[in-house]
Amino acid sequence: MRIAIIGTGYVGLVSGVCFSDFGHSVTCVDNNPAKLAMLEAGKAPIYEPGLEDLMARNVAAGRLSFSGDMKEALKGAEAVFIAVGTPTRRGDGHADLTYVYAVAEQIAHALSGYAVIVTKSTVPVGTNRKVAEIIAKTNPKAEFDVASNPEFLREGAAIDDFMRPDRVVVGVESPRARDVMADLYRPLYLRDFPMVYTGLESAEMIKYAANAFLAAKITFINEIAALCERVGADVKQVSKGMGLDGRIGNKFLHAGPGYGGSCFPKDTRALARIGQEHGMPMQIIETVIRVNEEIKHRMIGKITDLCDGSVNGKTVAVLGVTFKPNTDDMREAPSLTIVPALIGAGAKVRVTDPQGKSEGVALLPGVIWCDDAYQATENADVVVILTEWNEFRALDLKRIAASMRHARMADLRNIYDVSALSEAGFTECAAIGR
Predict the structure, then answer these.
(1) Pairing assessment for the beta strands 368-369 and 168-171 based on DSSP bridges
(2) Contact 408/424 with Cβ under 8 angstroms?
């Protein structure tokens, strides 16, 4: 099949590359000349393990190309995916649909035959119907259907998520559109991955409901962790005992400094806003949003307490600043709250992250970037683990403790046992829920 994907951000590029690996002919469209030049040179503008290799293989096979010409890209396309950003709108917390609607209008001008217009971007309920209205109004002769096909890609594991999904959700209202979407995903259907066909509104709601539930699960275990610290329980043991219950499951039950990233923060805010607009407040989600911010500030207190009540004049080594490992994404990362607060309180902050520097330099002014954990921790007063990169899971703890001015660690991802830290020479330790 011939596919056009508008937008080469995280969702668009990963989806385009994976569809081409299914055997489809895919053109990824973007209006950013610098990004197109990078893609045509074989470089991905995002960090995702395995993406560049898969991209190169499909470009070489002639199934994947990149273009800035939407009209040319849409010629003969049976499906056109909208995969542009929907950031949080300033002032009201709603998803900003400016880019989605602008692309819908451009698609309308470029359509030359029947196509299914597929919204891959995360959008509020009702957006697909508005996209259909815009296309019909802009080009009354356009022959098309709309479909909602939300993505469920985890950064750092996106290719595997696309190729081996828990489910594929497709919102359609015509048999013709359903047939096109079924053909697109035929390689997954043949391998018995679940295909969930719904109406447009239900597909839109599934994405928000799923992300909000996972965000609530993270926030729940973080609150339990805080209580564990007060009563002498160990949150890792509590999480394990909970997670073995098949009704609960063990995923997203790892206590830490709060959720971040490109999805959970904006999607929970958008869902809360949708509820408010329809007179049905999402009280649990509104609480999740508030508590998640409180958790980040609680981490600042943990670090400060380790430094005898003040970080002023202290050197703090921070290991990891991306919101999770295996990505360079800094959006809504806990580090963006915690690190500036430490600097504002007078700390000298050294930072190391395997992929975070490209975005972090602009987002974390005033920090000192180091090549690795050993350089960052030398003569430091406290080391803070913020992101659980594999590089930080097997550090030479004795070497680090011996090199520090004061051997203190705030392990905000519970990577290490406190007993192991003590044996390595750390005199004071703080963890989450332990």
Answers:
(1) unpaired
(2) no
Residue-wise pLDDT tens digits, 233-271: 999 999 999 999 999 999 999 999 999 988 899 999 999
Residue 202 to residue 206: CA distance in whole angstroms:
6
Q: Tokens at residue 41, please?
A: 């040179």
CA-closest candidate to residue 315, choices 346, 284, 360, 354: 346
Whole-Å CA distances, 194 to 190, 207, 311: 10, 16, 52
In the chain, where the domains are located: 2-198, 199-434
**CATH superfamily entry for domain 199-434:** NAD(P)-binding Rossmann-like Domain (3.40.50.720)
pTM of the model: 0.92
Which phi and psi angles does 42 have, rounded to 5°?
90, 10
Strands annotated E in 206-299: none
Q: Encoding tokens for residue 70?
A: 């939407």
| Span 2-198 CATH architecture | 3-Layer(aba) Sandwich (3.40)
The band of 216, judged by pLDDT with boundaries at 50, 70 and 90, is: very high
The two three-digit tokens of residue 19, written as one number: 């569809």
Helix (H, G, I), strand (E, B) or coil at 153: coil
The one catalytic residue among 18, 228, 263, 370 = 263
Q: Is 429 a catalytic residue?
A: no
| Segment 23-43 mean pLDDT | 95
- Determine contact, residues 425/402, Cβ cutoff 8 Å: yes
Smallest Cα–Cα separation from 101: which of 140, 69, 127?
A: 127
Q: In Å, how far from its chain's centre is CA 245? A: 27
Work out the angle at residue 343's Cα, subtended by the Cα atoms of residues 303 and 45, and round it to the nearest 5 degrees: 100
